[in-house]
Amino acid sequence: MFGLFSKLFSNKHLIIILFSLIILVIVMGLTLNHRELTWPEKFLKDTISLTQGILYKPASKIAGFFEDINNYTLTYKENKSLKKILHQYSQVVAELNQLRDENKRLKEMLDYKEKAVNQYQLKVGQVIARSPDRWNNMLIIDQGSNDGIKKDMAVITTQGLIGKVYSVSSFSSTVQLVSSSTDGGFIFAAIQSEPMTYGVVEGYDKKRNELQIKKIDLDAVIEPGQLVTTSNLGGVFPSGIVIGKVVRVEEGENGGLTKTAYVQPAADLYHINEVYIVMKTNVQSINSGTVQESEETPSKEVK
């Protein structure tokens, strides 16, 4: 092949012909706008245009094909990068919302503890377990006997009462919720009517989220909206812890000799993350000008 090209270019006549064609094309370009083309020039121009037209379309399609592939590759890489950034952003937003909610809860607990310091001595507990099949009955917190926790201590949130300590181990405790249906009657309630009305929390309507306060005197004047708090009559809880508000009142059991009040719990019994255990009740009494503190002594559970 190389020998063939060497032989061709060694031919002086061929070199002269090629050089002449180049000169002819240059001259045609310079004189194109100043005269009519001769038929050889027209033939040469048409041949070149036809050749360019034949070669241009396939070449442009091939170039466009490779350009499309390149654009597709760039788009794929960009899309993959954007998905990764979006996933990271969603994760950051979720963590931010979680931290915001936790910060809000902790701030509410701190404010509540500062306000309740004259009434109760409280210990913070974290919920560490809750069984789905007993969601309305029990939960487990990370405070136990080594932390001073005792059976029957009241357990509250910043909103109100949620239950009592049911059992205690060294490093954790089981809390029985007020919505528990396995062991009702351990909460004595005081309805803030005039005069004060007392009853016992015995039952929970899961669909309506209502506690049932039974054994209320038939002559008691109770109205919706009245506040319900704990009573120390049962010897289990201190007085004054908010339970909820009366929603409605109906005739009770025992042949209509008592009333039953339905109470909307003040505390959210479904979403519970942090709790307070009431360690002591600060009872202020005037005795020779001094304030005395008495520790709440739990009694046996009232059935």
What is the alpha-carbon Rg in Å?
Answer: 45 Å
Q: Identify the CATH architecture of the domain at 120-283.
A: Beta Barrel
Kindly state the mean pLDDT as a whole number?
Answer: 76
Distance between the termini: 111 Å
Percentage beta strand? 25-35%
CATH homologous superfamily of the domain at 120-283, by name? Rod shape-determining protein MreC, domain 2
CATH topology of the domain at 120-283: Thrombin, subunit H
Q: What are the secondary-structure elements, in order, as H or E?
A: HHHEEEEEEEEEEHEEEE
Q: Which structural category do the helix and sheet elements fall into?
A: alpha+beta
Domain Rod shape-determining protein MreC beta-barrel core: 127-278
InterPro entries: Cell/Rod_1, Cell/Rod_MreC_2, MreC, MreC_beta-barrel_core
Keywords: Cell shape, Coiled coil, Membrane, Transmembrane, Transmembrane helix
Function: Involved in formation and maintenance of cell shape.
Write up what this structure looks like.
This protein has 303 residues and is an alpha+beta fold. The protein has a domain at 120-283: Rod shape-determining protein MreC, domain 2 (Thrombin, subunit H, Beta Barrel), CATH 2.40.10. It is built from 4 helices and 14 strands. Strands 1-2-5-4-3-12 form a 6-stranded antiparallel beta barrel. Strands 6-7-8-11-10-9 form a 6-stranded antiparallel β-barrel. It has a two-stranded antiparallel ribbon with strand order 13-14. The termini are far apart. Involved in formation and maintenance of cell shape.
